[in-house]
């Protein structure tokens, strides 16, 4: 039976690091793989100004989520205007993804980081939305205040702040 096409697929434009980035991401997430790689042929390489035979696109999956990467040249750069969110059940997951994705990149704040390719990520514990939107606005305010002081999110510290400890 053929796999159903994912309705929305993030498409990432790189200068020339699409294959390197896809392999890097696949190495971090379980149940991930490079699906396919296409190369610039003579006609398309002339039109795009890219070397013939070089990698054009890489289709890959991160924990079942399909993504596409393109080597399109230096015209466009990544910004924080869009990011990929990694939902984590445990602090161990937060620590793992934060360490791997931020390596060679930049730790920002409130669970945000930029990886070494310039892609923005949010490494977020799944409990965060509960803490920030709880029934008691004062508890949620304390959790938000604690989060604003963090780079990598600390689940226990967020819970302590929420509980007023």
Q: What is the topology?
A:
Layout: E1 11-14, H1 18-28, E2 33-39, H2 42-48, E3 55-62, E4 65-71, E5 83-88, H3 91-102, E6 106-107, E7 112-114, E8 120-125, H4 128-132, H5 137-147, H6 155-163
Helix pairs in contact: 5-6
Quick overview of this protein structure:
This protein is α/β, with parallel strands linked by helices and 165 residues long.
Characterise the protein shown here.
By secondary structure, the chain is α/β, with parallel strands linked by helices. Strands 1-4-3-2 form a 4-stranded mixed beta sheet, covered by helices on one side. Strand 7 and strand 8 form a beta hairpin. Helix 5 packs antiparallel against helix 6. The model has no long low-confidence stretch (mean pLDDT 96).
Give me the strand/helix succession: EHEHEEEHEEEHHH
As residue ranges, the low-confidence spans are none
C-alpha-based Rg, rounded: 19 Å
Report the major sheet: 4 strands, mixed
Shape: elongated
List the total number of helices.
6
Helix fraction by DSSP (H/I, runs of at least 4):
25-40%
Average per-residue pLDDT, rounded, comes to: 96
- Structural class, by secondary structure, is alpha/beta
First and last CA, distance: 54 Å
Strands of the biggest beta sheet: in what spatial order? 1-4-3-2
Number of DSSP E strands: 8
Beta-strand percent range:
25-35%
Features:
165 residues; alpha/beta; four-stranded mixed sheet; 6 helices; 33% helix; elongated
